[in-house]
Design a protein that fits this description.
Bound molecules: adenosine-5'-diphosphate, alpha-D-glucopyranose
Helix content: 25-40%
EC number: 2.4.1.21
Low-confidence stretches: none
Structural class: alpha/beta
Family: Belongs to the glycosyltransferase 1 family. Bacterial/plant glycogen synthase subfamily.
InterPro entries: Glyco_trans_1, GS/SS, Starch_synth_cat_dom
Mean pLDDT: 97
Distance between the termini: 12 Å
Radius of gyration: 23 Å
Strand order of the largest sheet: 3-4-5-2-1-6-7-11-12
Organism: Lachnospira multipara
Catalytic activity: [(1->4)-alpha-D-glucosyl](n) + ADP-alpha-D-glucose = [(1->4)-alpha-D-glucosyl](n+1) + ADP + H(+)
């Protein structure tokens, strides 16, 4: 039996700003329980809903030094869905209304979290063989582990893994300040360690010091070795390519299941979708004030509204995209210019565009179920979970061939009747529009073909089964 501790800044159902939370909250359930005991450690953010916080059980507390402050570290525990979660408590750092704030605050917050997490392990009664870190917020953990904790007997054989969910976010801040906050010795701030372009870089530290580095699709693992996708760390990714691998994400097939999903007005499966799925479309049209028409081609977008997601392509051709035979339903929050762009088109084409600028799990499920197609023309996409959710709900993804989108959506081939979605290669608005129009043509004029695409998509297996096995293999390779 091996013990693995995930350390991350978010996980469903407690706190979520993106796909990271879906992965950290669902993957631990899918390991072989006879071989692996996988637990999760998170910050005890005050913005975690009370219904969860009230159930957390206090275990212990102690104090650590961080910069010139002595800080309280509380440790809480909660078993959820068969998985043990530990929460690190400190209201000074985790008290805000959102998990993340300004980068200079987050830099100190996650230095605290990293040090506190490592310091808490000996007192929780769980000795990990592997510490599995996720994204820049935990980048300092492999560094601290090597620099100080592994000197002690308790940590001496502990290995670390750094999983990159998004290389764009690295936790970069002024070198002198980070030196001061972290208390790491000067030699750690060299260009082959924590320093990058004269600043300190948490994720870089994690990548340099972890025993293995992974990212969330095979294609992204290749892409980040190139300057275009490498976010200034392509040199390092190449240098570490022996230890770097890509393991594609899955989704939680219990949470995302059109057959049992209580958010839907009509449940369906791979056999009944032809008769049932449209009922969700009409219900959503009614709820959002769109023209009720079960045959209208409805495109969905559920996304953070940022450049990563290819929204400038959409903005560029919105008028052509929202033609009379299309309905567009958007759910997302993010950059103001995109929020306002969608609001504008909601006003302009009121009966066929619906902009929902907020965050709602329930609404996201309704959209995955109601739409015919799901648009995700990302500039880059480490994996992407939304297209997997769309596939699961029989909603045909239209994606750009990048990162995980390339690995999970097979392009429709009309000559061989193959494929689970539609895709285009170049980051070009008219290329995207061309492929949307192609999908629309198949939907309206070749309905049987369309239904076969849906059928193949629903049949594809993106549960965690296969990928959890790949993580197990990776863990095994460390021993
Ligand atoms: P990323 O992590 O880059 O945002 P992913 O596709 O990996 O992209 O994951 C996005 C997750 O966030 C999905 O679970 C998606 O349904 C969810 N999501 C994004 N925006 C919203 C929103 N406004 N309301 C509800 N869920 C959302
Ligand atoms: C990041 C990526 C997304 C990925 C998610 C979970 O947020 O942007 O592509 O699916 O992490 O790994």
């Amino acid at each position: 039996m091996k013990n693995v501790l995930f350390i991350a800044s978010e996980a469903v159902p407690f706190i979520k700003t993106g796909g990271l939370a879906d992965v950290v909250g669902s993957l631990p359930k899918y390991f072989n329980k006879e071989e692996y005991d996988v637990r999760v450690m998170l910050p005890k953010f005050m913005c975690i809903p009370w219904e969860y916080r009230e159930k957390m059980v206090y275990k212990t507390h102690f104090y650590i030094d961080l910069a010139w402050r002595t800080q309280y570290v509380g440790v809480f525990e909660l078993e959820w869905d068969g998985v043990t979660f530990y929460f690190i408590d400190n209201e000074f750092y985790f008290g805000g209304p959102k998990p993340y704030s300004w980068i200079h605050e987050d830099i100190e917050k996650f230095a605290f979290f990293s040090k506190a997490a490592l310091s808490a392990i000996p007192v929780i009664g769980f000795n990990p063989d592997i510490i599995h870190c996720h994204d820049w917020q935990t980048g300092l953990i492999p560094v601290y582990l090597k620099e100080r904790f592994s000197q002690g007997e308790f940590y001496s054989g502990v290995k670390s893994i750094m999983t990159i969910h998004n290389l764009k976010f690295q936790g970069i801040w002024d070198l002198k300040k980070v030196k001061d906050i972290t208390g790491l010795p000067d030699e750690y701030f060299a260009p082959d360690k924590l320093e990058a372009y004269e600043d300190a870089n948490y994720l870089k530290g994690g990548i340099v010091y972890a025993d293995r580095v992974t990212t969330v699709s095979e294609t992204y693992a290749q892409e980040i070795k190139t300057p275009f996708y490498g976010e200034n760390l392509d040199g390092l990714m190449n240098a570490r390519s022996n230890c770097l691998s890509g393991i594609v994400n899955g989704i939680d097939y219990e949470t995302y299941n059109p057959e049992t999903d209580t958010n839907l007005v009509a449940n369906y499966n791979q056999i009944t979708f032809r008769k049932e799925k449209w009922k969700n479309k009409v219900a959503l049209q009614r709820e959002l004030g769109l023209k009720e028409d079960k045959s209208k081609f409805m495109i969905g977008i559920v996304s953070r509204l940022t450049d990563q997601k290819g929204l400038d392509l959409i903005a560029y051709v919105m008028d052509e995209l929202c033609s009379e035979d299309v309905q567009l339903v958007v759910l997302g929050t993010g950059e103001e210019r995109y929020e306002n762009m969608f609001r504008h088109f909601d006003w302009k084409y009121n009966d066929r565009v619906s902009a929902n600028i907020y965050y709602s799990e329930a609404m996201s499920h309704k959209i995955y179920a109601a739409c015919d197609a799901f648009l995700m023309p990302s500039l880059f996409e480490p994996c992407g979970l939304s297209q997997l959710m769309a596939l699961r709900y029989g909603t045909v993804p239209i994606v750009r061939e990048t990162g995980g989108l390339k690995d999970t959506v097979e392009a429709y081939n009309e000559y061989e009747s193959k494929g689970t979605g539609f895709s285009f290669a170049n980051y070009n608005a008219h290329e995207m529009l061309g492929i949307v129009n192609y999908a629309k043509d198949v939907y309206y004029n070749h309905k049987r073909e369309w239904n076969k695409i849906v059928d193949r998509g629903m049949k594809a297996d993106f549960s965690w089964k296969t990928s959890a096995k790949k993580y197990e293999e990776l863990y095994r390779s460390l021993y």
